[in-house]
Amino acid sequence: MTTTALPGQLQLDATANPPLMRISGDWTLAHFSTLEAQVAAQRTAESPGALDFAGLGALDTAGAALLAEIIGSARMSQLDQIARNLPAERQALLRTVGSAITQCRLDEKAPPPGNALVDVLERIGIASVTFKDHLIGVLGFIGLTLQTLLRNLLRPRRWRLTSLAAHMEETGLDAVPIVALLTFMVGAVVAFLGATVLQKFGAAIYTVDLVGFSFLREFGVLLTAILIAGRTASAFTAQIGSMKANQEIDAIQALGLDPVELLVLPRVLALLLTLPMLTFLAMISGIFGGGVVCALSLDISPRMFLYMLQNDIAVQHFLVGIVKAPVFAFIIAVIGCLEGFRVSGSAQSVGEHTTSSVVQSIFVVILLDAMFALFFMEMGW
């Protein structure tokens, strides 16, 4: 014959002196919700002076936690005096559970309120350390890439021409439409702006010089680099990051191959070759867009437009712009590949590092462009 397990019960005998709490039934996890409701109701009642465990059935740690709450941490040391009919082993269980609950509550105490200034300084310090770590990582990866490039430069058998050609098509040829279209529209906008402002001073003819100078020196290479940073750096990070997540990088290393030589060099060299060509295309497209606006809005014929470009703008302005392209290409490719290698192995990490590579690439491109502008200005170029 089997006995049915009954949930625990609390019965307060207020007539006894001191008031006596009778505890009976099973105090186990199976009845936890019922027992918890009884203990919650008991909090508002008078605290018992003694507890009678004569009717106590099964007991586990879940029930012991509720009983420890009834007893209270202050009276747990007097358990042998206030607990009647409770075996020593169950007293030990209640003391152990009660001690663990007390320690847990002490650990969960709210931290003292912080100082706003200290919090701001802490954030600045964390950001500074993070920036330093990123900078060291980028510089180290640049050194590793240059070392691998110099090591393979005089070893033609190790050149991966097929991979180089594929990446040149991906980073260069496939980007031609978007680069040409965007720079054409920006050239038209610059010409419209110049015509609007310069006409007030009777100098609308100098819109030609404005378009030429801006695209040969700055806009051509800068717009192209930003587009490539958003398009190609993210692609490099996603490609290498997916390989890292699928443990393909580990497989390459297990085969005795160098991931930098196999994955990084073809991408870096492809971008070094294609970005200057895309920059030249952007310059021509932007100037063409400005020429269309000048012809339609200012009645400047294409022949006059080209004549002014040839006479007023020296070739050094073209060189000032085009010389930045390889530097931007190298930095964009390195950052894109490095962020791919930093992927931890999950799809979320791939997305985070892809976003990070785009942000870092655009920031570094604009920063370097500003440094180039200051340098060329000081040199009188």
Automatic annotation (TrEMBL):
Instruction: List locations, semicolon-separated.
Output: Cell inner membrane
Which PANTHER family has this protein been placed in?
ABC TRANSPORTER PERMEASE (PTHR30188:SF3), ABC TRANSPORTER PERMEASE PROTEIN-RELATED (PTHR30188)
Arranged from A to Z, the UniProt key words for this protein are:
Cell inner membrane, Cell membrane, Membrane, Transmembrane, Transmembrane helix
State the superkingdom: Bacteria
Q: What is this protein called?
A: MlaE family lipid ABC transporter permease subunit
Gene Ontology molecular function, alphabetical: phospholipid transporter activity
How this chain sits in the membrane, per its record, is: Multi-pass membrane protein
Signal peptide range: none
Coarse class of the primary localization is membrane
- Protein family membership: Belongs to the MlaE permease family.
Q: What is the lineage of its organism?
A: Bacteria, Pseudomonadati, Pseudomonadota, Gammaproteobacteria, Pseudomonadales
Would the keyword Membrane turn up in this protein's UniProt record? yes
- Any keyword DNA repair? no
Transmembrane segment boundaries: 135-154, 175-198, 204-229, 268-298, 318-338, 358-377
Naming one, the record's GO cellular component terms include: ATP-binding cassette (ABC) transporter complex
